[in-house]
Write a structure and sequence with these properties.
Two copies of one chain form a homodimer.
Chain A: H1 12-20, H2 24-34, H3 39-46, H4 50-62, E1 66-72, E2 77-82, H5 84-103, E3 112-116, E4 125-129, E5 141-145, H6 158-163
Antiparallel strand pairs in A: 1-2
Helix pairs in contact in A: 2-5
């Protein structure tokens, strides 16, 4: 249902959205992560139409986020799985899920809990600094242009705004 | 352009996607975070149509992610800003941006860099366990049903699959 391509934007967020494809796609990735790996399981779980799911899985395979392997011949049936790139999206989906738990909780409470196997505790995916490990908030990060920053569609003003910004107000 | 509502799904990821609205929306949130706060700046930066941007900003305000305040009368002009809920999405967008830097980098390199003010280093937003602080990967988290887990549209199989799953294979 999306008519605009973000492929020409010099923005890694836009590129991520371009690769991921559309709103159904995070839910498809969620289901593959949670252990549903067959086409019919995804159709049943999500209530998505077969055509739309075929389209989304094709986008995900073209984008390198999902691979499929035949588990049956005659007729051929495929099992779908996350690639390394797809697996690396999962923690981000967990963080978005935690945000939804906090800001859009259903009345009955959190639908899914996640236990961190290493420490054994129920965990909330939290975004931290790769360098010092502290939690990152929007207030304590300062953006600046990287080597690939460009004035281009989707970033027509940002590059120049960032060039003049030494620290966020 | 999205025709399906995720509002009835018992899944905090689906609820997050429902609140955020559609693909343009993360880029609108990005721009508000980066310091563009006027309608015309957003139109210019993103190359989005005025109608579509009006629609997206209305969704964001209805969802409690964005507020606007008048900065001029006659004609009235508004400045847009992230609410607390919107600000808490920013680190997740940073994590998605880092994923895009890694998996969909433009040839010229990373478009934007982020410096963590606290430690002073260029940072990569990383998803960590709220309890032990270790980095979270898809392999070391085990999902289980929460109090709000339901067999419902969008989670027609997941609740029962998770009930039978003690640890991910």
């Amino acid at each position: 249902m999306r008519n605009t391509s973000f492929a020409s934007m010099h923005c890694s967020l836009a590129q991520s959205l371009e690769l991921i494809g559309d709103w159904w796609t995070p839910l498809v990735l969620r289901d593959l992560y949670l252990g549903l790996n067959r086409f019919d399981q995804l159709v049943t779980d999500l209530g998505i139409s077969r055509n739309l799911l075929t389209d989304r899985l094709t986008t995900l395979m073209d984008g390198g986020l999902v691979v499929r392997t035949p588990y049956q011949e005659n007729p051929v049936r495929h099992a779908y799985a996350l690639t390394e790139a797809g697996q690396e999206l999962v923690p981000i989906l967990l963080a978005l899920t935690a945000w939804g738990d906090r800001w859009a909780t259903p009345p009955a409470g959190q639908p899914i809990r996640f236990t961190h196997n290493t420490c054994g505790k129920v965990t909330t995916a939290t975004i931290c600094c790769s360098e010092c490990g502290d939690e990152l908030t929007s207030a304590d990060v300062t953006p600046s242009p990287g080597p690939g920053g460009r004035t281009a569609p989707g970033t027509a003003l940002i590059a120049s705004v960032l060039s003049g910004v030494e620290a966020k107000p």
